[in-house]
């Protein structure tokens, strides 16, 4: 079945221009424009597989309703194409009244669904096409092990992100399972402070109620903790947060008893890590004048790539080539806004130098197909007077 949809996938997402740039050492020079493409960018193995399975599902179950629970990945173009291919989205208002049953096929997204949602769909007898990425499943395995052993999973992630919600739900498979989601260093520091010194329990619960398992008690549930993370977070931040918790537990219980109270493992997926490393390398090696990061505004890994770039150089996070309004104007998402908040775009003026050489760094999030990246390159060529 894979071969049957290969042509369709290539037609939808392939870019000859991107292949050429890759073959030319990830450098594309035309006239006054030089583009340096990050060595790792765009579709990751998990997204590749999820999109492939979705197309296969349509081919394999002709005449049956094929649904997605929601976005398969965080890229509007990919989701729109799936809709055009006949896949329906259970998250659409129009589908709310549809009664799912054994005749229906339901595709689960790359970032997974909660334990409760999986059970509901299975109980309804739906045929499930599970595209949950192997890297997400690895996180789940560790979180389940924490729950079995009575450790609270401290999840570095975005509490509203589908993957984090799904991961947190794994902790509740066992009666002793607990979870607490921390967004960033600041929240981690607050929890670490409570671990070291205790504090105002009610104030703690007021702050973290939305991010903790039901009935969470910080005086009990922070005694034994294990770290995990949403796979697409900033790797440097996740590692630092893991170390912060390790240090807090060491202070509280002593180095010789640390193993009884603290566990950790690295759950940033390799694709996320490679894309973050690649932009760091690009910015370290090339004289980049400005950086363009392409990807869905609700894509966590894309937002984090933009954050890394913005710390070093002027950076524009754009959704697609249509965001490049003209050589003078660009529509983009301000870097730093959380990917789980509604997208608030801004328009910046005079973003491209009107004359002289321009060196642009380019990367794309793990849910951005190559054809979108290729169209961005073509648009940049047009705006700099080449095409
Ligand atoms: S970003 Fe990582 S965890 Fe997410 S789908 Fe891609 S490979 Fe899997």
Describe the protein.
Strand 3 (66-68), helix 4 (76-84) and strand 4 form a beta-alpha-beta unit. This protein has 387 residues and is an alpha/beta fold. Helix 6 packs parallel to helix 7 (162-170), helix 8 runs parallel beside helix 11 and helix 13 runs parallel beside helix 14 (300-310). The protein has helices at residues 2-13, 16-23, 45-60, 76-84, 115-123, 134-148, 162-170, 185-197, 201-208, 218-221, 235-253, 258-261, 270-285, 300-310, 370-383; strands at 27-30, 33-37, 66-68, 88-89, 105-108, 127-130, 152-156, 178-182, 225-229, 262-263, 290-294, 315-318, 329-332, 346-349, 358-364. The strands form four sheets. The chain has a five-stranded mixed β-sheet, with helices on both faces. It has a four-stranded parallel β-sheet with strand order 4-3-5-6, covered by helices on one side. A four-stranded parallel β-sheet has the order 8-7-9-10, with helices on both faces. The structure holds iron/sulfur cluster. Iron/sulfur cluster binds next to helix 3, helix 6 and helix 13. Iron/sulfur cluster binds at residues 44-47, 110, 133, 135-136, 231-232, 269, 271-272, 301, 366.
